[in-house]
Write a structure and sequence with these properties.
The complex is a heterodimer of chains A (about 400) and B (about 350). Among the domains of chain A are: about 160 residues, MetI-like fold (Orthogonal Bundle), CATH 1.10.3720; about 50 residues. Helix content of chain A is about 65%, strand content about 5%. Chain A is built from twelve helices and seven strands. In chain A, the strands form three sheets. In chain A, strands 1-2-7 form a three-stranded antiparallel β-sheet. The two termini of chain A are about 55 Å apart. With about 350 residues, chain B is an alpha/beta fold. Chain B folds into two domains: about 200 residues, Periplasmic binding protein-like II (D-Maltodextrin-Binding Protein, domain 2), CATH 3.40.190.10; about 100 residues, Periplasmic binding protein-like II (D-Maltodextrin-Binding Protein, domain 2, 3-Layer(aba) Sandwich). Helices cover about 40% and strands about 15% of the residues of chain B. A five-stranded mixed β-sheet of chain B has the order 10-9-11-8-12, with helices on both faces. Chain B has a three-stranded parallel β-sheet with strand order 4-1-5. In chain B, helix 3 crosses helix 9, helix 3 runs antiparallel to helix 13 and helix 9 crosses helix 13. Chain B is globular. The chains are: A mainly alpha (about 400), B alpha/beta (about 350).
């Protein structure tokens, strides 16, 4: 007789699927999987059934047919003879333009407002609270429309700029602010401007190399170089020098009133400006809160320790507080960038021709391909968001706490 | 458990399939009111009045259909739709019919799978400019900024007109007529283009209509008419013949004032057939025998509807033009009621 007993070698019983912990989780997962699949199949089946009931097919061929409509703001070549696919690309370019501009301005506004909200100056802190709460708590669409309406109603029409009119151009007759947009001088890239651009790019590389060198030097010897002034110098001096040495290759064409409208300059349309400012102010308010939370998350002891070591307040911010605060700031900041990009689809409210207005608006309406168009739009926003968040995640990895 | 889920899924799928093939008339009757898609507001065609009730030329057609079905012209829910949302609203079943200044085109009829049941206004695209610009012809509009409603045929006509005349323009896309009006009056665009009737209706609401001119060029054919979904012919017949009844009523001299008198019986067999005193046209449509009589009593005949909403004695002041009866040299021609 042995004291050891083998576990009873019974066969597998069906009830084990529920009562045996080894199998239970598998069972739950399998059931959940089947339910989800059934749901998806039902949705797809329903779509197919209803499409056929409406006598519609599922076809992306419309993307290659002639669009027939015009788009006012085109970053890439487009005319009404181009295809619907091309119109979608124009819209995508416009969406990306306002998203990038918006993210930059929103970050600037947000950082400034977030830091100032912590200011010891009562008036400044209250003003920033007012800004943050005002923009955070009123729907974005209202802000877009309000800003657009103000710009349309309060600025002069182009015909007011005529002789004897009530309006005149500003900045030495180079810029005209009208209710159709702001007309700015248009640069003409003459001979030698390629070299100018190359020099500009080279000076950017120079700035980056110098900052790297300065950091290394500081880590090794403690000596601090005047990074800001050298960077600014490197940014402007070579380009300005080269501009004159190369014989002014870039000239400007100034906007002039001709016929119905200004011609010659670049028109920055009111719809773009209104959308850009509204998106930036709105998202900036959220970013301000993120920044404030990030700074507050760094314990006061850190500042005190830095001061005790005799580090100046501005360096304390740059070297002690911000690097630690960034770890808290970056992840929610990614969400804000994604929000801004997706919120840009409200562009239709002011007639800004983003991808929602071209592919998701006019194209759908002219071709009747709602399902296909909306699916493509969804895919576009999904891909864009994934690219933004993976790029920001790379940055996040570079600033996050490195455990050794 | 799995079995019940499966059965549930089947049941829901069956319901969805049932919905897709349901008859519109039965649905409308079960609901007790007609869902009619109209514009978000175009004076004379469809706009809420001071007391919040919808009125206008297109609204009249919705009311006539409701009167034909229920004998009650107020059994209508008006659903305001923009140029962009109208077709989706109709295709998805949110509205039963559209009476919304919608142009009958080949692709809308065939590819979008809608059924245009007739034309209630023969229109064409025009241009409106401020008189101060001293423009007398659309050919002088090179370089102009043009306000335009997106998702419309006017958008495509505009592109064709300017490119075929080698002119350039800057489109300002806009969602609704009200926004277009605001942009145009603020001077954010030099020109507003839409159907000529829409221009007249919009201009009538301006503070100083005489400061704006509608240019003489009409650059397109815009037959505007009511439409329904493809595939429900019985429902299309009801809307089509309600419109025809209004048109035929004008031709035969039936008005909202004398319809009840004529319904007692007349010498003219066609009037008798329309008003249901002879034959069974109403039953063929699946409606009451007095369907047309109710429609005409509620909104009047085509001519009355036109004159009271957009005619020459209204601020909009449109002439009958192409929209006169064929006997008066117009295009309105109802097939016989027989």
């Amino acid at each position: 007789m042995t004291a050891m007993t083998d576990p009873p070698n019974e066969g597998f019983r069906l009830s084990q699927l529920i009562y045996d912990t080894r199998y239970r989780s598998m069972t739950i997962q399998a059931v959940a999987f089947m339910l989800i699949m059934a749901g998806i199949i039902w949705l797809a089946n329903n779509t197919v059934q209803n499409l056929s009931a409406l006598g519609k097919d599922f076809d992306f061929g419309f993307l290659w047919s002639r669009a027939g409509y015009d788009i006012n703001q085109r970053l890439i070549e487009y005319s009404n003879d181009s295809t619907h696919g091309r119109a979608a690309m124009v819209g995508i370019a416009n969406t990306l333009l306002v998203a990038v501009l918006g993210c930059v301005l929103a970050t600037l506004l947000g950082v400034i407002a977030g830091v100032l909200r912590l200011s010891k100056n009562w008036v400044v802190a209250r003003l920033m609270t007012f800004y943050v709460e005002g923009f955070r708590n009123i729907p974005l669409l209202l802000w877009i429309i309000v800003i657009f309406a103000v710009m349309t109603e309060s600025t002069p029409q182009p015909r007011d700029f005529r002789e004897g009119g009530t309006a005149s151009m500003i900045l030495n007759d180079t810029v005209a602010i009208t209710n159709r947009g702001i007309f700015i001088p248009n640069p003409v890239w003459g001979e030698g401007s390629g070299a100018l651009i190359a020099i500009f790019l080279a000076s950017l590389v120079g700035i980056w190399a110098f900052r790297r060198y300065a950091r290394k030097l500081q880590e090794q010897t403690g000596q601090i170089l005047p990074v800001l002034w050298v960077s600014l110098g490197l940014f402007f001096a070579p380009v300005i020098l080269a501009y004159f040495i190369l014989g002014r290759p870039v000239t400007l064409i100034y906007p002039e009133l001709g016929g119905f409208n200004f011609t010659g300059g670049i028109q920055v349309r009111n719809s773009l400006i209104a959308l850009w400012i509204a998106l930036s102010l709105y998202t900036g308010a959220f970013i301000a809160e993120v920044v404030r939370a990030g700074i507050l998350s760094v314990s006061r002891g850190q500042t005190e320790a830095a001061f005790a070591l005799g580090i100046q307040p501005s360096r304390t911010m740059n070297l002690v507080i911000l690097p630690q605060a960034l770890r808290v700031i970056i992840p929610p900041l990614i969400s804000q960038y994604l929000n801004l990009t997706k919120n840009s689809s409200l562009a239709l409210a002011v007639g800004y021709m983003d991808v929602r207005s071209t592919l998701g608006g006019i194209t759908i309406n002219q071709t009747g391909r709602e399902l296909e168009g909306m699916l493509l739009l969804g895919v576009f926003y999904l891909i864009t968001s994934l690219i933004i968040s993976s790029a920001m995640n790379l940055y996040n990895n570079s600033v996050k706490l490195k455990e050794r | 458990m799995k079995k019940s889920v499966f059965l549930g899924t089947l049941a829901v799928a069956g319901l969805a399939a049932g919905f897709a093939s349901a008859q519109t008339l039965a649905e409308v009757q079960a609901r007790g009111s007609l869902n009619c898609g109209v514009t978000t507001g175009l004076t004379g065609f469809a706009a809420p009045n001071a007391s919040g009730e919808w009125e206008g030329f297109d609204v009249g057609l919705c009311r006539a259909v409701a009167a034909a079905i229920f004998g009650d012209a107020t059994a209508v829910e008006f659903v305001p739709t923009t140029g962009q949302t109208r077709f989706t609203a109709l295709a998805s079943g949110e509205v039963d019919m559209l009476a919304r200044n919608t142009t009958w085109t080949f692709s809308r009829d065939v590819d979008l799978a809608f059924e245009f049941v007739g034309v209630n206004y023969y229109d064409g695209q025009g241009f409106m400019v401020p008189r101060a610009l001293n423009v007398s012809s659309a050919m002088e509009l090179d370089g102009a900024t043009v306000c335009i409603q997106t998702g419309t045929t006017t958008e495509l006509n505009l592109a064709d007109f300017f490119s075929s005349n080698n002119m350039s323009y800057e489109p300002v896309p806009i969602e609704t007529n009200a926004e277009a009006q605001q942009q145009y009056l603020a001077g954010a665009c030099d020109v507003y283009t839409t159907d000529a009737s829409g221009l007249a209706a919009t201009r009538a609401t301006f503070e100083d209509p005489s400061a704006h001119v509608v240019l003489p060029e009409i650059v397109s054919k815009e037959p505007l008419g009511p439409l329904v979904r493809h595939g429900d012919n019985e429902w299309a017949d009801i809307v089509r013949w309600t419109l025809n009844a209004l048109i035929a009523a004008e031709e035969l001299g039936i008005t909202s004032a004398n319809v009840n008198e004529l319904a007692a019986g007349t010498e003219n067999p066609e009037i008798n057939r329309i008003l249901g005193t002879e034959g069974d046209l109403g039953a063929m449509l699946g409606l009451d025998a007095a369907w047309a009589r109710n429609a005409i009593a509620a909104v009047g005949n085509y001519g009355e509807l036109f004159e009271s909403n957009i005619g020459e004695n209204t601020p909009i002041g449109l002439a009958r033009g192409l929209n006169a009866q064929w006997t008066d040299g117009g295009l309105l021609y109802s097939p016989p009621f027989r």
